[in-house]
Every structure is written in C-alpha cells, then in structure tokens.
Amino acid sequence: AYYTLERIFRERHGVVIPRQQMVQWVEKIAFLLLAIYNGIWTELQATGYLQIDETPVKVLDPEVIGKAATGYL
Q1: What is d(CA 10, CA 7) in angstroms, rounded to the nearest whole number?
Q2: CB 72 within 8 Å of CB 57
Q3: What is the DSSP letter of 63?
Q4: Residue 44 and residue 50 in contact, taking contact as beta carbons nearer than 8 Å
Q5: Per residue in 7-39, pLDDT tens?
C-alpha cells in the first residue's frame, strides 16, 4: 500500500514522500487515536450488550480458489 501511495504522490503531485516516512506518520496517528479506541471499547463493555450485523459480502480470499468467499461485515 505504501509503495502505491509513494508512486501516486510522485506521479500525480510531483511530491516525493518516502514509504518509511509514511509508515512513521501512520504509527504516530495510530498512537494518538488509541485513547479514542480505548474510550469506545470501555463504553461498549459497560453496556453488557453488544449487537452485531452479520451481513454477508463477497470477498476475494487466496485460500478459496476459483470463486469469491463469503465474508461478514
């Protein structure tokens, strides 16, 4: 994914952003978002009830040869 982003920034915008730099940015952003994630998870656990949606979707799975597998949202 980072290889593709690096190419897109270079070709479309003329900006060179090394992959390692993008990885470092994502790592820092993930760390900053961790507090929000933990807050949401704490709230979910406090309710005692969690409902999920098991809507089936077709997905490409390298272990399933010749057809799309069924995944769930």
Answers
A1: 5
A2: yes
A3: T
A4: yes
A5: 999 999 999 999 999 999 999 999 999 999 999
| pLDDT level of residue 71 (50, 70, 90 thresholds) | confident
What is the C-alpha separation between 61 and 38, in angstroms, rounded?
30
Distance CA(31)–CA(23), nearest Å, equals 12
Question: Is the CB of residue 70 less than 8 Å from the CB of residue 58?
Answer: yes
CB 59 within 8 A of CB 68: yes
Residue 70: the pLDDT is 87
Residues whose CB is less than 8 angstroms from the CB of residue 34 and which lie 6 or more positions away in sequence, other chains included: none
pLDDT tens for each residue of 37-70: 999 999 988 988 888 888 999 988 877 788 888 8
